[in-house]
Specification:
Bound molecules: zinc ion
Distance between the termini: 48 Å
Largest sheet: 9 strands, mixed
Structural class: alpha/beta
Radius of gyration: 21 Å
Helix content: 25-40%
Number of strands: 17
Number of helices: 14
Length: 425
């Protein structure tokens, strides 16, 4: 399949803006990006006209729990500990059969409709999540537990890796799930690190999300949770560390030293009353900071454009400096930086020759984009997920003119209604 996107206003997210150009996709790869008119004598299977649209890389959601769509708008007004223990954990006990698959499919509908083409997912049944990723056409880093919580002695992530890893499914990247240093003990942390090293994969974890996590960590380990993770070898492998709200200066230098990828989740951190991560300081230190929505139970949507705008504004506000967090930097957090964090071994997250063809088109023929003036500013401060018109992932058209082509939206919504009735009662 050879696709031509012409008349395109392209924001490549690796430093270029092409005001009138074209993109050629051959199978799953971007094979040409150029300004001007495309050569006329080439046969294409599809020609897409991107006039009145902005074209950019698909967004990368670097930390989410997709199936928590099932718990959307449930348990509001609680802090992290009460919310988890009183609402979420009891509801999760009622999940069965293919509930997680359906929850992920709902998330896939929402993500495609708001421009996300890749994500890092952490939840219960990784096989069901992987099936939904394959069926929806998206791309995901999916983590799984190193040890069976039921005490059978088996290692779920080893089974998951054997089935989905090693390049068998190029759109899926298995990682080891380390929920956090507050739910895990030292032995579990060390075993998780060993497992990741043996499999040659990375770890996805939560880190220093709340002030009480910071204080409890010091009580439990004598050092804070970032230092404890370093001590247990967690940072010896590639890591996505979600939140990092309550990191000290010393933690920041540890995260930098080990090239830990920090997933910033501004909406979730505000909604759960956790605080604001020192993103500007982490970026100044040279840490790869990317963006996530967290689960929809604490957000309550998967619209990455909301995170983009909030991430920019929060750092300007708390640091009292409007020059911080340029639009280009924030867009890169949501694309290139996220792609780097997900750990795929191919080029992803920018519109450039040789990169995977994950591309979104945003309809800018609307009052809230007019006049456009600065295109990056427009994408950060004016765009909503609902402005996304067309989505291509891995060279496949998943949505065109806001019509989903890979998923049956109506059927998925009705399935979720019936699951939600059972689990939240
Ligand atoms: Zn989370």
């Amino acid at each position: 399949m050879k696709i031509l996107i012409k008349n395109a206003f392209i924001v490549t997210c690796d430093g270029r803006i092409i005001k009138n150009g074209y993109i050629v996709i051959t199978e799953d790869i971007i094979t040409e990006v150029s300004d001007g008119e495309p050569p006329k004598d080439v046969p294409y299977d599809r020609i897409m006209d991107a006039g009145r649209m902005m074209v950019m890389p698909g967004l990368v959601n670097s930390h989410t729990h997709t199936s928590m769509t099932l718990f959307r708008n449930y348990g509001g007004g609680l802090g992290l500990e009460d919310w988890l223990h009183k609402k979420i954990f009891p509801a999760e006990k009622k999940l069965r059969d293919m509930d997680i698959y359906h929850g992920t499919m709902l998330a896939a509908v929402e993500m495609i409709k708001s421009g996300t083409t890749a994500f890092a997912d952490m939840y219960l049944d990784a096989d069901q999540m992987a099936m939904a990723v394959i069926d929806s056409g998206l791309r995901a880093n999916i983590c799984q537990l190193p040890i069976d919580p039921l005490g059978t002695g088996s290692s779920p992530v080893r089974g998951f890796y054997a089935k989905w890893g090693d390049g068998r499914y190029p759109r899926i990247k298995p990682y080891v799930l380390v929920h956090s240093a507050y739910l895990y003990g030292e032995d579990q942390l060390m075993l998780s690190a060993e497992t990741a090293k043996e499999l040659g994969i990375g770890i996805h974890t939560h880190l220093l999300e709340t002030r009480s996590e910071y204080l409890e960590g010091i009580k439990k380990y004598g050092i804070d949770n970032a230092m404890e993770m370093e001590k247990c070898g967690i940072f010896d492998v590639p890591v996505i560390a979600a939140h990092c709200v309550h990191v000290t200066d010393e933690d920041i230098s540890i995260l930098k030293r080990y090239n830990v990828n920090v997933a910033h989740n501004p909406t979730s951190n505000l909604k759960l009353g956790s605080g604001v991560a020192p993103v500007h300081q982490m970026m100044e230190a040279g840490i790869n900071v990317c963006l996530g929505t967290d689960g929809t139970a604490s957000n309550n949507t998967l619209d990455m454009f909301e995170e983009i705008k909030l991430a920019a504004m929060l750092q300007k506000g708390i640091n009292r400096d409007a020059r911080l967090m340029t639009s280009e930097q924030v867009l890169q957090m949501a694309t290139l930086n996220g792609a780097k964090a997900l750990g795929f071994d191919y080029d992803l997250g920018a519109i450039r020759k040789g990169a995977k063809a994950d591309i979104i088109m945003i309809d800018i023929d609307k009052p809230h984009f007019t006049p456009l003036n600065d295109p990056m500013e427009a994408l950060v401060y004016c765009a909503h997920g609902s402005d996304v018109d067309t989505v291509i992932a891995d060279g496949m058209i998943l949505m065109e003119k806001r019509q989903l082509l890979s998923l049956d939206e109506e059927k998925i919504l009705r399935e979720i209604d019936s699951i939600a009735k059972r689990v939240i009662s």
